[in-house]
Prior knowledge:
Order of helices and strands: EEEHEHHEHEEHEEEH
Structural class: alpha/beta
Radius of gyration: 16 Å
Amino acid sequence: MTLQTRKVDYTHEGRSYQGLLVWDDSHRGARPGVAIAHTWAGRGDFEAGRAQALAELGYVAFAADLFGSGVRGEGAEECRALIAPHLENRAGLQALIGRAVEVMREQPEVDAGRCAAIGYCFGGLTVLDLARSGADVRGVVSFHGLFNPPGNTAGTPITAKVLCLHGYDDPMAQPDTVLALAAELSEAGADWQIHAYGKTLHAFTNPNANDRDFGALYDAAADRRSWQSLRNFLEEVLA
């Protein structure tokens, strides 16, 4: 097995973006594609690591870019400023992640008919919005994502299967929002699952998350369990 990587430049509404494609070249022919939507800090080493792990499982992974080529946030203030325009314009965010999935589908290593998307934190909200928009993907997975609805997708059927992997004590997505999301997904006709991990905070998959007062803390057990749930889900939806 030899993992290969390629930076993929693309544009959306006049702005330049750069994603990272990772695949195992020992697999012949096109393989299912999994897009990865990044945290509020932008595409970085964490997403690259997850892309490599997915490639080792036989998928073609595409770490998407939602901020623009080379744009990264340092510290909470900068990161909030980066996501603010997207939270204020959810239709624009839906179009942007849709464009990233389209770019992934265009890559010769990817089986365009078998694609999914996963996301972390802000990226979790992003892939939920992808599903809410009625996008033609087989499934989306939100890791410790935000659940607040976009306000522009009511009445749109959700055809993608949905999996949310959630820390029950996450202060950024409290229990009432979990119930609201369940009701929203049911109303949209989605095939959905929500896995909540007890005594688990935000950012539980990130080994660098170590700020209990902020509500973000790595949890090895939840990280391991959620990754296994992701594997099971992808095996089902991308078969």
